[in-house]
Structures are given as C-alpha cells and as structure tokens.
Design a protein that fits this description.
The chain is α/β, with parallel strands linked by helices. Helices cover about 40% and strands about 20% of the residues. The chain is globular and about 65 Å long.
Amino acid sequence: MKKPQPTESFLGISALTPPHNESQDVHETLLEFPDNRLLIDLCGEFDRNLAQVEHALDVHILRRGNHLALVGEDVARDRAAAVLGQLYGRLESGRSAEAGDIDAMIRMGDAVSQGADDPGDQLEMFQGGRVEIKTRKKTVEPRTDAQKDYVQALFANELAFGIGPAGTGKTYLAVAVAVNMFIGGHVDRIILSRPAVEAGERLGFLPGDMKEKIDPYMQPLYDALNDFLPGKQLAKLMEEKRIEIAPLAFMRGRTLSNAFVVLDEAQNATTMQMKMFLTRLGEGSRMVVTGDRSQVDLPRGVASGLSDAEGLLKGVEGIAFRYFTARDVVRHPLVARIIEAYDKADA
C-alpha cells in the first residue's frame, strides 16, 4: 500500500491525506501527534474529549496509534482538525484541555473558519486573537466571540455595558478583569455592587447585622471573587476595604477614584439610581454595568435604569455597549434552549 504523504502541519501535528482510491472517494484526514503522552491527555478519560468534538462538529474520530483519523464532510473535518490542533498546543504549553476549553474552541472556530483555507491557517488566526485574563487562582479565557469582544471592551473603555441573558459570563468576566487590573496595579480598589431587589418573592426581615442582611443579595459576587483570589487574601483585602461588596443604595454621595467598579443586575436599578451610580465615576477608575433586560424585578410601572441608560448613552465617546444572546450561554446547554424558548414566546 502506498505510504500516506503529509500535506500540512501545525503545532507539531502532521495532517496526512490517504492516497486516493480509484474505486471510492475517501473523506478522511489523518492527524499525527508526535508526543503520545500528550495525545492521551488530548483524547481525555475514556476518549471523552474526542466524543465532545464528534458530537459538536458531526465528525467521526478514530484512534490509530499516534494518529487520529477524522471522517466526515470537508468543512467539519477542517474545523475538527483546527480544534484538535489548538488543544494539542494548549497541552504542549502546560495548560489544560477541559470540556470548557473545548467548548470555547468549537464556538469560536465558527468565526475563525471564515476566510481560512486550511486547518493551519485557522489555527494561526485563532492563536493570534487569543484573549487571556490572569488572576491569582486561574487564567480565564472567553469562550465565545461575544465574550472575547466584551473582554476587549472592558480593557479599552472607561465605561462598558454588558447586556444579555443569564449564563453568558457578563459578571464573571467583569470580576475577572477587575481582579486582573487590581493585581496588576492599574487600580487600587475593586467595588462590586448590585441592587438589593427581591426576585419576585418577599423574603421578610432577615436576621443579623447589616452585612448579614445584605449578603444573600451579594452572594453571586462573592462566588466570582472566590474563583479568582485565595480565601485568606480575599478576606484580608475585604477587611482593608480594598475590595468592597455593597448594595447600590450605598453608592450615593461617594466619588469612586482609582477603582474598578462593577454594577451587576443593573436592570433592577431605577432611572435615578442608574444616574446616581454612573456619576460616581472618579479619576483613574473604570466602570462596568451588566444586566438582563428580560429579568426586571422592579415594581410594575417603575422604569428600568438599564434600558434608560442604553437609550441615552449609545454613541457617547468612551462608552461601549456589548450584547449577548442565548448562543453565548456557557452554563448547561439546556439553559440556552430554555432562554430561546422564552424569547420565542415573548416574540
């Protein structure tokens, strides 16, 4: 049998095309991986990483020694080759190849593949546009093109809005950027806030002091911070007031200088509260406002400050608006389908 000839290579991976068989067309790409140890990590336990790529891209992947054979349509094989090449590159650099990493590459590969003629070109374009947010505990990477554009806007603008459904990473990425800029010395403080509005139910009078009363409303912000900073360091920074988590009402009268300020759940801020918050911006500070227009918990007849600000501030220099859809949901895949069903019903 004639020996396969390499046709292209990237990141130490040779992509080979089997010789043409006159009796039938062969729709297969063969990828060679020089390091068998990394190939094992690439495939994942019980080949679960390969199964994820197969399911998402509609290809069939066969292991043959230190080769992976991709069987399927041309476009699907090219996309799968680019994703597997990027994953192998991550492993070569000592980074992880988890389910979330694979999901990010598959999602962002849709845009990467446009204008690229082969897997090598696709991979180079993807690497050239990589965005990473380094924190004390982990490195965060956007998983969709909308997330990538959002993160770039946070670094480039003094005031940015992130608007879209739950589960799209609006708050999580904003807090990650805040921590990154804080540990890099670009800001002196992190201030996280959200309106203390009950989500459709009366919780009554909560026990404890002021902090204990408001903490349940602020818990999502604590969760995000705990992902990026060691517990002891976070506790110390909060004790020193270098990191603050407070209800929106506590912002009145303050000037927030040299700080990274995040307002979460902004759809539950009234028009006056939103104006009050936006005018707290001080010298050397950055501000991020996140919200979901479909989850307003304000009393009937009370206008959302987020919608009002969106209408008034679009086009103002130095302010960026970035939008997310159900396609950017990075929680359980069922969440995206739930959001799409509700959006369809509303429409």
